[in-house]
């Protein structure tokens, strides 16, 4: 499957139970994100888990707008964030102290040292909502499980994996009792127990129908439509100009004198933006034209 493009998320449910699930598997979309910087493999893997996580979250939280997961900390990793919009455009980035040697295997808790996760829901029209999760577990999966139990108050389990080529995830959630179907009291325990036997190579190597067959061949699994995801950056000349303007007129004037223009590269997609004195004239007022 290594040569096949597969950037998919698919929902599933189990007949006769109140458990639903999601499975995501990405290769190209993930590779587009990690190739933007020279990431050490351990960071590629951690960023991959974040990418798989935002893809799952995207399909669970149904809003028109942008969802993001951002990790902030005081360790050698300063920022790690992924974002996905309603058209399944994914982007992500990690920033770390490049003077330090990155260990081959890293735990979220260690690299963030007292940090936290911020999960932000920004609807196109409406109020921004942010949920903060303290990083108490070692893994992103544990943090997300905690987030779901806080925000949706529904028992949820998450499995994530990434290897620098693919990233993938599996999500199970027990729906509220009123949606429960008759008769299968042990479904949640049984289905999560079976899912916890999933191996990294299965999560990253098997198509969804194969994976679910391997885990649940004795269950009645119902698969829903596949949705495709892709790398996509929401930067624009206008948004970058706004970021440049936030530097303030004194600093902008200095840059114009030193460099003749103001250059700004998008950190997510490496798109280069350049603003001339003319582009900034309205902002700076008439003085800029005569400096
Ligand atoms: Zn961009």
From TrEMBL:
**Which segments of the protein form a coiled coil according to its record?**
none
SUPFAM superfamilies noted in UniProt: Hsp33 domain, HSP33 redox switch-like
Q: Which domain of life is it from?
A: Bacteria
Q: Name one GO biological process term.
A: protein refolding
List cystine links. Answer: 233-235, 266-269
Q: Which GO terms describe its cellular component?
A: cytoplasm
Gene Ontology MF terms in the entry: protein folding chaperone; unfolded protein binding
Regarding how it is modified after translation, the entry says: Under oxidizing conditions two disulfide bonds are formed involving the reactive cysteines. Under reducing conditions zinc is bound to the reactive cysteines and the protein is inactive.
Gene3D superfamilies, from UniProt? helix hairpin bin, Hsp33 domain, HSP33 redox switch-like
Q: Which Pfam families match?
A: HSP33
Ordered alphabetically, the record's keywords are: Chaperone, Cytoplasm, Disulfide bond, Redox-active center, Zinc
Compartment annotation: Cytoplasm
The record ties this protein, via HAMAP family, to:
HslO
Free-text function comment from the UniProt entry: Redox regulated molecular chaperone. Protects both thermally unfolding and oxidatively damaged proteins from irreversible aggregation. Plays an important role in the bacterial defense system toward oxidative stress.
Q: Which family does it belong to?
A: Belongs to the HSP33 family.
Q: What NCBIfam families does this protein map onto?
A: PRK00114.1
Q: What is this protein called?
A: 33 kDa chaperonin
Which organism was this protein described from? Marinomonas arctica
What lineage does the source organism belong to? Bacteria, Pseudomonadati, Pseudomonadota, Gammaproteobacteria, Oceanospirillales
What's the gene? hslO
């Amino acid at each position: 499957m290594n040569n096949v493009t597969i950037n998919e998320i698919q929902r599933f449910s189990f007949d006769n139970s109140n458990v639903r699930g999601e499975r995501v598997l990405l290769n190209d979309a993930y590779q587009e994100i990690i190739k933007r910087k020279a990431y050490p493999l351990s960071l590629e893997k951690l960023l991959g888990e974040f990418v798989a996580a935002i893809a799952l979250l995207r399909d669970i939280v149904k809003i028109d707008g942008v969802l993001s997961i951002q990790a902030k900390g005081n360790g050698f990793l300063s920022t790690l964030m992924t974002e996905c919009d309603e058209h399944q455009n994914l982007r992500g980035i990690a920033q770390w102290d490049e003077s330090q040697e990155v260990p081959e295997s890293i735990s979220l808790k260690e690299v963030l040292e007292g940090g936290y996760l911020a999960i932000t829901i920004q609807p196109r029209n409406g109020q921004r909502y942010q949920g903060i999760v303290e990083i108490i577990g070692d893994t992103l999966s544990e943090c997300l499980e905690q987030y779901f139990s806080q925000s949706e108050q529904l028992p949820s389990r998450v499995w994530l994996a990434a290897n620098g080529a693919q990233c993938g995830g599996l999500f199970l959630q027990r729906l509220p009792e009123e949606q429960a179907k008759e008769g299968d009291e042990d479904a949640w325990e049984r289905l999560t127990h079976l899912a916890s036997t999933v191996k990294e190579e299965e999560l990253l190597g098997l198509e969804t129908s194969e994976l679910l067959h391997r885990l649940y061949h004795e269950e009645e699994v119902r698969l829903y439509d596949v949705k495709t995801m892709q790398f996509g950056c929401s930067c624009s000349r206008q948004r970058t100009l706004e970021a440049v303007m936030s530097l303030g007129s004194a600093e902008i004037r200095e840059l114009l004198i030193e460099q003749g223009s103001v250059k700004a590269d998008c950190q997510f997609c490496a798109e280069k933006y350049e603003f001339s004195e003319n582009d900034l004239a309205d902002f700076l007022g008439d003085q800029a034209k005569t400096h």
